[in-house]
Each structure stands twice: as C-alpha cells, then as structure tokens.
Amino acid sequence: MFSTMSIEEILSRNAYLLTIELRLFWLVAAIYGVCFLLFTLHALTRSVPVGRGAQGLLWTGVVFHVALIVLRTIEGGRGPFQTLYESLSLFALTASFTYLYISRRWKDVYLPGTFVTLLATGACLYALLRRSPAVNPLFPSLQSYWFEWHVILAFFSYAVFAVSSAIEATYLIMKPILKRGLAAGYGLTLSNLAEFRSTTRKLVIFGFPFLTFTIFSGAAWANEAWGRYWGWDPKETWALITWTVFAMYLHAMAVPAWREKPASALNLTGFVCMIMTFLGVNWLAKLFGIPGLHLYAV
User: Is CATH 1.20.120 the classification given to domain 1-137?
Assistant: First the structure.
C-alpha cells in the first residue's frame, strides 16, 4: 500500500508540475506574440516608444522562459534537450536572448526584433499545439557524454545565425528605403547602415566555430552510439550543407565584389538550411518514409 501510494504521489506531483509548466509556456508564447505585434506596429508607425516597449516586454518574456527551462529541468531530472517540444522551446529562448544582447549595441533599432519574435512565437506555438509535452527518460543513444555539449552548442549557433539573418533581412529592407530618405524613426541612417550590417558577419564568425564543434561532437557521439562517425544520415547531411553555406558566406564577405547581394543571399540561404536541419529534415523523413537515426526527436 505504501509503495502504491508513493507511486501515486509521484505521478500527482509530476502532473502538477506539468500543468504549471504548460501554463507558463502559454504565458511565454503570449508574451512573444505581443512583442511581435508591437515590433510590427513599430515598423509600421516608426514609433520609438512602441519599439522600446516591445524590447522591454521581450526581456520579461525571456526571464519567464528561463524559469520555464529551469522548471522543465527539475521536472525531467535532465537538461531539456531530448524531444522536439523541448528543442523548440530552447530555440525560442536562445534566439530571443541573443537578439536582446546584440540589440544593446544599436539604440532605437528594433526592426530585427520583428523577425526574431516571429520565430520565437512560431516555435513556441508549434511546440504547444503540435508536440507532446510528456517527460520521458533519455533514449539509450542519448545517454552519452557528448549529448549535452552537442545539443547546447547546436542551439547556440542556431540562435546566433537566426539573429544574423534577421539583421541581414533588416539591412536589405532598409537600404533602398534609406536611399529614398524615408527611414526616419528606425534608428538607421546611410552613415551607420554599413556598420549595422557588419554585425551579421561578426555573428556568423562567432557562431561558426560552435557549429563546427557541433558537427565534430555529433560524429564522436555517433561513433559511441552507433559505431560509426558519419553515415550520411539526412540530418547529418543537412548539417554539413548548413556549415558549407555559412563557410561560403564568410568567404563572400572577404571578397569585395561579393559582399553585397551574393553574401546576403548566402546568409539567408544558410538560415533556410539551418531550419531544414532543425525541422525540415524530420518532416521530409516522416512524409516520404526516409530512414534516419535522428528521428527520435520527431
């Protein structure tokens, strides 16, 4: 009887924690959504107070999201990296925090926040509406020294690349507008636009080594889990494609003739490849029945 009651108490506690977690996650998603609307309103009205309000609210969302990640860690007794539900949450947090950290350098420039909060909101809603929040024990293949390092560095590089692409997109949108003299209220001018855009290169330079180590640690992990370093698994292949595209971007930025449109195209293409690595591969594999060893996260 004591044993049965103990199990019931444990299940009741876990259910209670999961209820709190889901409510907190919905709150975080709502905050990100409101931030996206405020950033969009700023883009339409050029109101600096609206942009500042969105930025301040996003800090609030990040604080709540950190609390959510801590709660999930306590609830599962491990880092929240195993399932796609957890990965989407982690991506939303790291992308939002990276944007806020970088944005301190650019006073009254809030347009990249529109793209970042759209990504964060979409990731949270996809996790909440389409993925299971159940806390499961680690798969045997994930029980490795390399597991946490591989996943943490992967999502750190993803966050850096997402913010880099948001700044690149802002640059491409604002450049023709600035040339027509219509950009008052956005915090950017023709004199500081090039310096603003240079942030994209700095971010990729910073994130590229982490992506490189992600691939190498993944190979070491694969050898430990499956007895081979590389097998051209769909996710492995797309990770290599993403790495190659960002390597080409860095090369393009070093060649004066390629620094504008070619480099911008490569940066945005790298972001698309990153999303394919993160999510698209799983969808395609499931849709077409493509075998893969990474589909435990689907």
Answer: yes
